[in-house]
Amino acid sequence: MRRSKLDSIDRRILADLQDNGRMTNVELAERSGISAPPCLRRLRALEEDQIILGYHAEINAEALDYKITAFVHVKLSSNNDHDLRKFEETLMNLPQVRECFLLVGDFDFLLRVVAKSWDDYQKFLSSELTNIAHVAQIKSSLAVRRSKFAPGVPIEEITKK
C-alpha cells in the first residue's frame, strides 16, 4: 500500500538509514521515539512502497586500484526508443559503467565510468564504448577529486504536504 505522505517518524527512519544503512531496528526505533515492532513495520512498508530500494556498502575505489573516474557524455545517431533501450541494455554488460542517465539536451546519456588506469580507460573507450551501435559522439570529463558525496536525497527538505 503506497502512502501519499511521510510523517516525521518515517522521515527520521529514512534520514538515519541514509546516513547509516547498517543501523539496527532497535537503534532506528530509539532514534525515532517508537518501539521496535512498529519501527520494523514502518521499515517494511517503506521497502514495499519502494521508497527504500536497497542497502549498499560504500566501496573505496582507490583502495581497489580504480584511480580514474570519468563522466562521459554520449550522443547517439538515432533517438528512437528501441535504439535508446538497446544502448542502455548494452551498458548493463560493461562493468566499468557504474551509472547511466538518459538526458535531455545536447547529449543523450551521461555515464560515470571507472578505470584502473588511463590506458584502461582509453581501451574502454576505443574497444567498448565506441563500438556500440549508434554511438555518434563521446565527450569525456575526468574527475580530479570528489569534493562532495551525499547519496540519496535531502530528507530534511521533505515537507509534510
Categorize the overall geometry: elongated
At the fourth CATH level, what is the homologous superfamily of the largest domain? Lrp/AsnC effector binding domain/regulation of amino acid metabolism (RAM) domain
Question: Whole-number radius of gyration?
Answer: 20 Å
Name of the level-1 CATH class of the largest domain: Alpha Beta
The largest beta-sheet arranges its strands as: 2-3-1-4
- Helix-strand pattern, N to C? HHHEHEEHE
Q: Between the first and last Cα atoms, what is the distance in angstroms?
A: 18 Å
Structural class: alpha+beta
Q: Compute the number of strand runs.
A: 4
Describe the SSE topology.
Blueprint: H1 8-19, H2 25-32, H3 36-48, E1 68-76, H4 81-91, E2 97-102, E3 109-115, H5 118-128, E4 135-142
Antiparallel strand pairs: 1-3, 1-4, 2-3
Helix pairs in contact: 1-2, 2-3
Compact description:
The protein is α+β, with helices and mostly antiparallel strands and 161 residues long. Helix content is 34%, strand content 19%. Helix 1 (8-19) packs across helix 2 (25-32) and helix 2 packs across helix 3 (36-48).
Walk me through the structure.
- The chain folds into 2 domains: 8-57, Winged helix-like DNA-binding domain superfamily/Winged helix DNA-binding domain (Arc Repressor Mutant, subunit A, Orthogonal Bundle); 62-142, 2-Layer Sandwich (Alpha-Beta Plaits), CATH 3.30.70.
- Helix content is 34%, strand content 19%.
- The protein is built from 5 helices and 4 strands, in the order αααβαββαβ.
- It has a 4-stranded antiparallel beta sheet with strand order 2-3-1-4.
- A hairpin with a 6-residue loop joins strand 2 and strand 3 (109-115).
- Helix 1 packs across helix 2 and helix 2 (25-32) packs across helix 3.
- It starts with 7 loop residues before the first helix and ends in a 19-residue tail after the last strand.
- The model has no long low-confidence stretch (mean pLDDT 94).
